[in-house]
Specification:
Chain lengths: ~110, ~110
């Protein structure tokens, strides 16, 4: 069965540094991959989508890469701020209806 | 600018009781879905719908029923609640096949 793994449950970094989160998947070749942010007590909020034919996508301080050979996506936050502290989820589409399956998330803490 | 609205925010049930979790969206999205989120398990798809009158099972459908009589509403029914259904439930909708999911802020359900 398809498996999606975010290899860190938690990541602690200093303000101003670049945070790098990893998402790996197996047994599947998704057409696209999405990243979401979730704050405590709230639903996930969409951040970025990257398609299989795109190597990299950027939005302000966020950058996502997608390596279909390694079956891996990297999510970067540059010049991180305490306000970036949240749980970040990656998600892949699965099946003919494009249902999303989610990783378990990485909880990022940015210390001032 | 309501988006996806879930009610109630919190609910406590006794084993064997039934209830309906409400979900409504005002974006005219055809696709709607229900996920549950448990610690260490991530988001898991319960049921989804690709339009009014059409529903299908996700990866963890047992113990839950859904219906889709209108585009706007997608209620989730627990016919006989069990402690294993203690979780946070999220409803989500999207515009088209590879567009982002819009989530509600969840219903926290405890079954004693």
């Amino acid at each position: 069965s398809q498996k999606i793994e975010q290899n860190s449950e938690a990541l602690n970094i200093q303000e101003g540094k670049t945070a790098t989160l990893t998402c790996n998947y197996t047994n599947y070749s998704p057409a696209y991959l999405q990243w979401y942010r979730q704050d405590p007590g709230r639903g996930p909020v969409f951040l970025l989508l990257i398609r299989e034919n795109e190597k990299e996508k950027r939005k302000e301080r966020l950058k996502v890469t997608f390596d279909t050979t390694l079956k891996q996506s990297l999510f970067h936050i540059t010049a991180s701020q305490p306000a970036d502290s949240a749980t970040y989820l990656c998600a892949l589409e699965r099946g003919s209806q494009g249902n999303l399956i989610f990783g378990k998330g990485t909880k990022l803490s940015v210390k001032p | 600018n309501a988006g996806v609205t879930q009610t109630p925010k919190f609910q406590v049930l006794k084993t064997g009781q039934s209830m309906t979790l409400q979900c409504a969206q005002d974006m005219n999205h055809e696709y709607m879905s229900w996920y549950r989120q448990d610690p260490g398990m991530g988001l898991r798809l319960i049921h989804y719908s690709v339009g009014a009158g059409i529903t299908d099972q996700g990866e963890v459908p047992n113990g839950y029923n859904v219906s889709r009589s209108t585009t706007e509403d997608f209620p989730l029914r627990l016919l006989s609640a069990a402690p294993s259904q203690t979780s946070v439930y999220f409803c989500a909708s999207r515009d088209s096949y590879n567009s982002p999911l819009h989530f509600g802020n969840g219903t926290r359900l405890t079954v004693t």
